[in-house]
Amino acid sequence: MQRLQILAVSALVALAGCEKPADSGGKRPEARPVPVQVEPLTKRTLSAIYPTSATLRAAQRATVTSRSQGELERILVDEGAYVEEGQILAELDDEEERLRLAQAEAKAKSEAAELERAEQLSSQGALSTTELETRRNTAAEAETARELAALTLRRTRIRAPFSGTVLKRHLDPGGAVSVGMALFELAAVSPLRAEVSVPERYVPSLAVGDPATVAVPATRVRVAAEIERISPETDVESGTVKVTLLLPAASGELRPGSFVTCGLTTDRRVDALTTVRAALVSVGRQWFVYRVVDGKAQQVEVTLGFEQDDYVELEKSHPALAPGDLLVVTGAAALADGTAVEVLEPAKAEAQ
Q1: Pair 273, 43: CB distance under 8 Å
Q2: Cβ atoms within 10 Å of 40's Cβ, excluding its own
Q3: Which CATH entry fits the domain spanning 94-155: 1.10.287, 1.10.10, 3.30.1370, 1.20.120?
Q4: 92 near 177, Cβ under 8 Å?
């Protein structure tokens, strides 16, 4: 029953196609041209891109720890702040350290005065060489103790070991700090680096300084990078080579720890005859484009080559194509070889 219905519908469609109205002269009207948009064939440089992914890391990163102990009195910077090398990040309570320094300074000053008197007595022959040497050692020890007290006081000031951005702080004011306790996470966030693993077969075509691309899928931020280093060894288990990409100093919204996609150029085709993907029509395993010649669409079989972004290389074509040929980029799917076409202006095409 279903088969009979399909045959009946097919017969009606065929009959409708035969019963076209004739004009007053008895001739059938010509089909209206199909409106299309076209773009000229151009030559451009296309690159073969190896896609991979990585996690961005800072050029320099460190956990800032305390080299002293006591109560955390003040925090002078917060997360996200940029600091210079040597800048004070936090201060510990230093009352005891100041007293110890004052005591050591007084002791060093007293011993220095005693040494001066001993040297005078020694020059007059009233003091033995041994006693003078003892005074000198005592004065040196007092000066060393003063320097140690001053160092202990300085260590109550937590300073940035290098210029960078504060990523995280681990403690609030009033907390107890011990020697070696982590207080801040500091990173030099510019420039950033990305380490990717590239199959060994692609490495011979790469070189330090070659361009690369880095993008954050979540934000669609895309920046140009370059190859900074290529590892001299191949990973035995994966058969890949570590390649380090260097991002520019001004990396916009990129941050350490961001997941990024990377593209490395492994081959390049100069002066490739290219068109946009919208011009391609597939029939089975064959690819075709439509060239506009004298108001009609000419079907051209093509072989595809390199692909980059929205552009595709036409390696071979039959009949032959040349730069400047107008290819249909909108409406190609509705065409057949010899179809009459109307090339629309961009504004008209948008309205239609």
Answers
A1: yes
A2: 10
A3: 1.10.287
A4: yes
**3-class state of residue 124 by DSSP:** coil
| CATH class as words, domain 34-44+270-351 | mainly beta
The reported pTM is 0.58
- The domain covering 49-59+190-268 belongs, at the CATH homologous superfamily level, to Efflux pump adaptor protein, beta barrel domain (2.40.30.170)
By DSSP bridging, strand 341-343 and strand 34-40 are: parallel
Instruction: Please give, one letter per residue, the 3-state secondary structure of 235-247.
Output: CCCCCEEEEEEEC
Q: What is the pLDDT of residues 233-291, one digit of tens each?
A: 999 999 999 999 999 876 567 888 889 999 999 888 889 999 999 999 999 889 999 99
- H or E, element range at 53: strand 42-65
* Domain ranges across the chain: 34-44+270-351, 49-59+190-268, 94-155
In order, the DSSP letters of 245-305 are: EE--S--TT--TT-EEEEEEEEEEEEEEEEEEGGG-EEETTEEEEEEEETTEEEEEEEEEE
Using one digit for the tens of pLDDT, what is the confidence trace for 19-30? 444 454 445 556
pLDDT in tens, 134-155: 999 999 999 999 999 999 999 9
Instruction: Specify whether the CB–CB gap between 254 and 192 falls below 8 A.
Output: yes
What are the phi and psi torsion angles at 105 (to 5°)? -65, -40
pLDDT in tens, 82-132: 999 999 999 999 999 999 999 999 999 999 999 999 888 888 888 888 888
